[in-house]
Specification:
The protein is about 40% helix and about 30% strand. It is an alpha+beta fold. It has a domain at about 30-110 and about 130-150: Nuclear Transport Factor 2, Chain: A. It has a six-stranded mixed beta sheet.
């Protein structure tokens, strides 16, 4: 190989190497690197009741959309978690799966707990396992909004509640005593 060919080959190699380095530097950062620790910390607060940790990870204007455990603000969220841990002192939530994107994350989780009997002593000692999912919005490294989907009927049936079919209007009329 002549010096001229070697120089040309070196220039081509340098250009290709530069393109590879530039392409590697243009790869967007993996959002899970920042969001997974945030999700893990949030689940840990629910599992331990260490509410002081929320201040670092949840915005004061946080909004939790949930049929049974909604919250409007950080203080409201702290009350929701305290109430849940009062009902289930051994409450534990485990993330089963998660998806992360810039400023958003979705998590599928399982929670377990043993009812304390608070509010209904007949429920004391009943164990519950429930599945659900949460969708979060994150701004400036803090949770600002959460949408929760869970199976409340499953919890109620595990606690011993039953569901009865509705009484039909015809059945109601047939059961009323006739006036003479």
């Amino acid at each position: 190989m002549t010096h001229k060919h070697l120089h040309r080959w070196s220039v081509h190699f340098a250009v290709v190497l530069l393109l590879v380095v530039l392409a590697a530097g243009c790869t967007p950062p993996d959002p899970s690197l920042k969001l997974k620790p945030l999700a893990d910390a949030y689940a840990e607060v629910w599992s331990t009741g260490d509410l002081g940790r929320l201040d670092a990870i949840v915005d004061v204007g946080f909004k939790r959309h949930s049929a049974k455990t909604g919250a409007d603000g950080l203080d409201s969220l702290k009350r929701v978690i305290s109430n849940m841990r009062n009902l289930y002192p051994d409450f534990k939530v485990v993330g089963d799966d998660a998806v992360y994107s810039e400023g958003k994350m979705a998590s599928r989780w399982t929670w377990t707990g043993t009812h304390s009997g608070a509010g209904n002593p007949a429920l004391q000692g009943k164990k519950v396992r429930n599945l659900g999912s949460s969708f979060f919005r994150v701004v400036n490294g803090k949770l600002v909004e959460e949408w929760v989907h869970t199976d409340n009927l499953s919890v109620m049936t595990q606690l011993g509640f039953t569901v009865a079919p509705p009484v039909m209007p015809e059945e109601t009329a047939a059961k009323k005593p006739q006036k003479k």
